[in-house]
Amino acid sequence: MHKNADLDALASAFYLKEYFGEADIAADGLDRIAKSFVRKFNIEILSEIDEEKYDEILTVDTASFEQLGKFSNVKVDVVYDHHESNNMNAKMRFVDSSYPSCAEYLYDLLNYKPSKEASILLLGGIIMDTQWFRHARRDTFRIFHEILLLHDLEMNDISDVLEDNITFGEKISVLKSFQRMKYRTVGDKIICGTYVSSNESICATSLLQFCDIVFVSSQRDKNVRVTARSKDHNLLYIFEELSKDFQCSFGGHKKAAGANCMGDKEAIINALLAISSQLLKG
Fold first, then answer.
1. 2 inside domain
2. Which tens digits make up the pLDDT trace of 232-252?
3. Residues 6 or more apart from 36 whose CB is under 8 A from it?
4. Calpha distance 100→86 (Å, rounded)
5. Residue 197: which domain range?
6. Are 191 and 143 members of one domain?
7. Which CATH number goes with the domain that contains 206?
8. What distance in Å separates the CA atoms of residue 183 and residue 181, rounded to the nearest whole number?
9. Structure confidence by residue, pLDDT tens digits, 68-100
10. DSSP 8-state code for residue 46
């Protein structure tokens, strides 16, 4: 799974583990919601692996080797993903960007009945990657309904964990993201850029309620991580333009993407605001 794996990545990995039988799951960290499901179902996640131990190494919900973090140099045999920007070379590739979540893609692809635990994970992954169905397509609801029926599940079986209260630290990060925010307007569209030290994803989601395009950056030494969200505009194009002036790797979807760049966080945010403004001006 990708670094700081989210619930969609965890659900996809757990479902593949059930499908193949004997398998291990590894990741360079998990986000808060994925951690809560790991605790709930007592899932073992490896932080180190011995490549020689395995016949095959698979990746899920990961668009580039850089996103694997500490596992970025691992030789990957099979890729399962739903990101349009996927550039991972492997003996076998199963990539379909028409699916809003990797969980629903794997459910359709494998046609394998998941356990109750895997079903709850898959449903949670679908909810989170579609942002509570805001980016769902018609087939998303078909798949979601099918999985609910498999074990007579109800929404509260999933929402009890997903609606875990936002932590104090996350609240502070969101408030700081508003405090440090820069914005530009083009017509009736608003582009927002800010920086925080952590919790970029929840900050970006919160800002998207008020902005049409959002960029949230954080800096570790010379490395700048940018989390982006958009209502209607292609973030991958924006990151591609950014890469012409900054050393960046990026991936994700048109409306939800991320980048890792070398440079200064404020300079990168300013560049993203400028590129986005030109995009909106046409």
1. no
2. 899 999 999 999 999 999 888
3. 161, 164
4. 14
5. 169-281
6. no
7. 3.10.310.40
8. 7
9. 989 989 999 999 999 988 889 999 999 999 999
10. B
Q: Could you tell me which residues come within 8 angstroms of residue 21 by beta carbon, excluding any fewer than 6 positions away? A: none
Phi, psi of 97 (to 5 degrees): -80, 0
For the record, the structure tokens of 85 come out as 């920007």
Q: Any idea what DSSP says for residue 111? A: -
Residue 273 amino acid letter: L
The amino acid present at 54, given as its one-letter code, is Y
**What does pLDDT average to over the chain?**
92
| Residue 177 placed within a domain | yes
Cα-based distances in Å from 39 to 24, 36, 121, 203: 17, 5, 12, 24
Alpha helices for 151-234 (secondary structure H)? 156-162, 168-179, 200-207
Using alpha carbons only, give the angle 84, 92, 67 rounded to the nearest 5 degrees. Answer: 50
Q: Which amino acid is at 256?
A: A
Q: Residue 35 is encoded by which pair of tokens?
A: 């951690």
